[in-house]
Amino acid sequence: MALQGKGFLFDLDGTLVDSLAVVEYCWCLFGKEQGISDDEIKNYIHGKPALESLRHFMPTATEEEITTKFRWLEHLEATETAGIVALPGAVELLNRLNQLAIPWAIVTSGTVPIATARLHAAGLPEPKHWVTFEKVKRGKPAPDPFLLGAELLGLAPQQCMAVEDAPAGIHSALTAGCQVIAVHAPEGMPRRDEISLIIHSLQQLNIENNSSTGSFTLSVD
Asked: Residues 6 or more apart from 159 whose CB is under 8 A from it?
C-alpha cells in the first residue's frame, strides 16, 4: 500500500521513543500517594495531557493543589530519563526526512521540559517545530495539537501523515483530518477502520520524494 503526503507529524512517547517504564514509574509513584492502583493509573494516562489525568484522579482537589502536583510530576518526568531509548527505525526515519527536506514536527502531550529531555536522552534529531502541552488549549484527544502541527508545517491536515501509538492521539489526528499511521492499533479500538496504515515498527516505512508534485510516497515493507 502506498500513501501520498507532504509532511509528517509524530507523537513522541511510544512512537519515537520508548519511555514506557519511566512514564509508568513516575505516575505509579503519584498513584501510591493517592491510593490509586497501578492498573488504574496505567489504563488511563497514556496519550493524554498530564493535567487531564490529574483532574481525573484528583476530582476534589483545588486548581492550586493540581498545579502543585503537576509541577512535581513534571520535574520528576523531566529528570527520570535513564533507560529512555529511540524506538527501532526512529533515528533513521527522521534523518531520512531531513535528507529529503520533508517537513516534520513532533506533536506531544508532554511539556517542553519533559519532551526535550526525552528527545535528547534518546538521541533523536531536533525538530524544527514542536507542539507541546503549553501550545494548545485542548490536548489530545481533541484535534487541536495536530491542527497546530499542520499549520506550523504550512500544510493542510490532509497533506500530513500523523504517526501515533495511543488511542487518544489517534483520535486527535483523525479528527484533525490527517492521514494516520498507527504503530499498533488494537482490535476493537474505536475508529480503527479510519486509520490509513497500521504498522508494527517504523523500520517498515519507505519514503521517496516525488519531485514533480512536491510530495512524497510512503510504502511499507
From this structure: 5, 6, 7, 150, 215
72, 95: one domain: no
Do residues 168 and 140 both lie within one domain?
A: yes
Q: Are residues 93 and 134 in the same domain?
A: yes
Extract the C-alpha cell encoding 72.
Answer: 512535581
Q: Which residues are catalytic?
A: 11, 13
Kindly list the averaged pLDDT for each block of 10 residues, start to end, along the chain of length 221: 93 96 95 96 91 96 96 95 96 96 96 96 97 95 97 98 95 98 88 95 94 88 85
Backbone angles phi, psi at 120, to 5 degrees: -70, -40
Domain shared by 64 and 94, yes or no: no
What pLDDT does residue 160 have?
98
Instruction: Note whether 93 and 163 are same-domain residues.
Output: yes
CB distance 105 to 219 below 8 Å: no
